[in-house]
Amino acid sequence: MEEQIYDVVIVGGGAAGLSAALVLGRARRRVAVIDAGEPRNAPAAHMQGFLSRDGMPPADLLAAAREEILRYGVEIIDDRVVGITKGFTLSLAESQAVTGRRLLLATGAVDELPGIPGAHERWGRDFLHCPYCHGWEVRDQAIGVIGTGPGSVDHAHLLRQWSDDVMFFTHTYPVTATEREVLGARDIQVIDGLIAELSLVNDRLDAVQLIDGGSIPRTALFIRPALHTRDDSLIASLGVEVDESGFAKVDATGRTTVSGIWAAGNASNPRAQVVTAAGEGSAAAIDINNDLVEEDVREARQSVTASGRPITTPANRLERTYR
What we know:
Number of helices: 9
Strand content: 15-25%
Number of strands: 17
Shape: elongated
Low-confidence stretches: 315-323
């Protein structure tokens, strides 16, 4: 079969990837989006903080975005990338390989949840991570924060502005005396001991069960989960430089340390919300298109030089026209 060559191949069909595809499609570039269909926010019933889309289910946003980019000739390939060679040729699990002049990694990230029974089932519902995404919906409720690392205490202090009833469950995090004192000063009760499971009533979080048998009523639980990029091996195989947590290092436009490769959204920014990821995808798309234009101009100049014809600048053409 004939090889499919695109101006840009985008790996990942979330907010970052689809936003970039929209900009590039409107720039009349040939674009393919490879999407494995595993968005990070899939468990959530709604997303917040996206101007004009506040409260929209994440799946609805992606469906609308897909419909929009198809109007501009962007191709969506529902498949998984299994390998990328320099050049950039992408091998897919079930489809024909595709090649792009430029590559945008919008592969997202994965939340690592603790091995607490009920945690995975409640994730995105009443077991949450982002106060800015879910804090308003659980305001004034009985909120718990699970300790897993140093940032967990800061998380508890942040949640305190959404509710007067916040408890910090130490779980696996050894709270220092100073941290305990400051938490107490803000009326955040510290609950020591490991969490055994999450207790449910009528398909809603009802309490946090401790391993010592204690039961603490809570209606919402927050955690600052460990986060890693979804396709670590793909990023590593391309030689892209990453930070200590494995996220691609990029400049303000999303350029990575490898020529021809950009990254946007959670692939490079673990703090990016949906609206942030969309903005990063748009910025990367503009830079990618500018880079392609520069290459097109270089190739045109080389072609003219090879033919022996003098290079005519725009100024010279105007001078001949109006002389």
